[in-house]
Amino acid sequence: MWKPISADELQNLVLDCELDIEGTVVSSFWEFIKIPPQKWQNYPMGDEGEGFWVVAILGKHVIWYNDIEDGFNISTYSTSGVINEYWCSQSGLKAILTSLHETLAVVPRPII
């Protein structure tokens, strides 16, 4: 039977990632976007576990942990506390952060 991840178990996943990215540009990026983990709603998938843990916010996007599928995801939000989309990625936090950082780092700049 599925059981929601505890705050302590989530914190261990985050700490493992922080140790792995320590001293990198991704670590600086993470420090900029991370928040203390908060439970946010996602209807109907998050109902049974009283929501999913959000660990970072960037603009209108959140990084959250899907404890049904055991992986981190990126979704949009319109209202604080509510995740718009349900995703079932089984990615680690480091992979999500690295991918997002690389995507933002290659945004073309206008030529002056």
The percentage helix is 25-40%
On the 0-100 scale, what is the average pLDDT? 92
Spatial strand order of the main sheet? 1-2-3-4
Number of structurally distinct domains: 1
The shape is globular
Instruction: Report the major sheet.
Output: 4 strands, antiparallel
N- to C-terminal distance: 59 Å
Low-confidence segments: none
Number of strands: 4
Question: What would you report as the Rg, rounded to the nearest angstrom?
Answer: 14 Å
How many H/I helices? Answer: 3
Strand content: 15-25%
Q: Could you give the order of the helices and strands?
A: HHEEEEH
Q: State the secondary-structure class.
A: alpha+beta
Question: Which labels suit this protein?
Answer:
single chain; 112 residues; alpha+beta; four-stranded antiparallel sheet; 3 helices; globular
Can you describe what's shown?
The protein has one domain (7-105). The protein has a 4-stranded antiparallel sheet. It has helices spanning 7-21, 25-33, 93-105; strands at 34-40, 52-58, 61-66, 71-76. Strand 3 and strand 4 (71-76) form a beta hairpin. The protein is 33% helix and 23% strand. The longest helix has 15 residues, at 7-21. With 112 residues, it is of the alpha+beta class. The chain is globular and about 55 Å long.
Short note summarizing the structure:
By secondary structure, the protein is α+β, with helices and mostly antiparallel strands. The protein contains 3 helices and 4 strands. The protein has a 4-stranded antiparallel beta sheet.
